[in-house]
Design a protein that fits this description.
This protein is α/β, with parallel strands linked by helices. The chain contains 13 helices and twelve strands. The chain has three domains: 79 residues; 37 residues, no CATH class; 266 residues, Rossmann fold (3-Layer(aba) Sandwich), CATH 3.40.50.720. Helix 5 crosses helix 6 and helix 7 runs parallel beside helix 8.
């Protein structure tokens, strides 16, 4: 082990014998009392020395035997220690891709803060390369989500949509102006390739669009033939945001049947929506959402049937570019949190924000007893918001 105090956390002395690592309450940790010699030893925890050399340096400074190991254990328990050589074979392979890794270093630094164990950041970054995500929709929200996921190291990002790119599909971070008139799916594929810092690892026996190596590590999903990993996640970002605000349960039947996690996101009129993230059989789905709304508002089924029928539909849907970008960024962050092994706050819940105040508000969606998805009685009453908070308990 070559221990290093996580460089992403800023270090400052609160007073002569107490040092604080990190700025924000979510991740800050204070350590003390720290004497002068131990403070000097802290400076040597930079990943360039193994434990044997660190022990020698500590003895030269007059520190007792065992002090170095005790300090490293204490800092590691607080989530402050990383190891530049940890993470396993997949992480080692990623380290050999210096140019690609340089693009991902800010992401790696963030992951090292969020995941406390040594090597946890690069282990998850390497695992992202094995995941396969499908984005449904290539408008202002969907194309940007696809680009963000690809830029974050997700190994395979597929984008499904029809028709050709219109001028109003263009957005910073999404489809460029030169793509207007091209097929949406082809333009989105180019965007994904251009955004990717590195190509996904290849697995034998598959080719073309089915190529994505390794084992998909998160969520329940179906396996397809030929060794191709099943979908880790589907992100539903329809260009008509009504289909994210009031998703049609029929569109999710196959995902429910195969256990494929899916996340809804979009903009309708001047409201942005992120969630729910549906874990089939475990959390509320689109059918639960629709049944719950109908019970609270008897007029809802009639309204949504008229909206879905397309009567008097606008040629161009309202979709403020800044709101679309905010929704895309939030949706991509929730997706990455799930892919990295956490349950984000959109799990079984919906987050909404509206112009002009942009106040984010959440609504918990309960599984419905009459919905055939099977989630009723399994997740109702469970607090999924507690998942992933272990690191935060170290703060302070």
């Amino acid at each position: 082990m070559h221990p290093t105090v996580k460089p992403a956390l800023r270090r400052a002395w609160r007073e002569r014998q107490t040092v604080q690592f990190g700025v924000t309450p979510a991740h800050a940790v204070t350590v003390g009392p720290v004497d002068t010699a131990t403070g000097a030893l802290l400076e040597m925890l930079d990943g360039t020395r193994g434990l044997p050399l660190l022990r020698e340096e500590a003895r030269a400074m007059g520190l007792p035997d065992g002090h170095t190991d005790a300090l490293v254990r204490r800092l590691a328990a607080a989530g402050l220690i990383d190891d530049p050589k940890a993470g396993g074979p997949a992480a080692d392979a990623l380290r050999t891709r210096a140019g690609a890794l340089d693009r991902l270093r800010p992401d790696l630094a963030s992951l090292s803060v969020v995941h406390p164990e040594p090597g946890g950041g690069i282990r998850r970054l390497a695992a992202r390369r094995t995941t396969r995500v499908q984005v449904r929709g290539a408008g202002r929200v969907g194309a940007t989500v696809a680009a963000l996921l690809s830029a974050s190291g997700v190994g395979q990002v597929e984008v499904l949509d029809g028709g050709c790119v219109e001028a109003w599909d263009v957005a910073p971070g999404g489809l460029p102006a030169e793509a207007v008139g091209e097929r949406r799916d082809a333009a989105a594929r180019r965007l994904v390739r251009r955004s990717a810092p590195l190509r996904p690892p290849q697995s034998g026996g598959t080719g073309g669009a089915g190529r994505a190596g390794g084992v998909v590590v998160t969520g329940a999903r179906a396996r397809r033939g030929g060794g191709t990993p099943g979908l880790s996640l589907v992100v539903v970002c329809p260009r008509d945001g009504l289909a994210a605000h009031a998703p049609d349960p029929a569109g999710a039947v196959d995902w429910i049947a195969t256990g494929t996690p899916h996340l809804y996101a979009g903009v309708v009129e001047a409201t942005g929506v992120v969630g729910p993230l549906v874990l089939p059989g475990g959390t509320a789905c689109a059918g639960c959402l629709e049944r719950g709304r109908a019970e609270r508002d008897p007029g809802w089924p009639r309204l949504v049937a008229q909206w879905r029928s397309g009567g008097r539909r606008a040629a161009v849907h309202a979709c403020d570019v800044t709101l679309a970008t905010a929704v895309a960024g939030s949706a991509a962050a929730h997706a990455l949190s799930f892919l990295d092994g956490e349950l984000p706050m959109s799990t079984g819940a919906r987050w909404e924000t509206s112009l002009p105040l942009l106040d984010w508000r959440s609504e918990r969606i309960a599984p419905h007893a009459d919905c055939p998805c099977g989630a009723s009685g399994k997740s109702e009453g469970q607090d999924t918001s507690g998942f992933g908070s272990a690191h935060e308990t170290m703060a302070g």
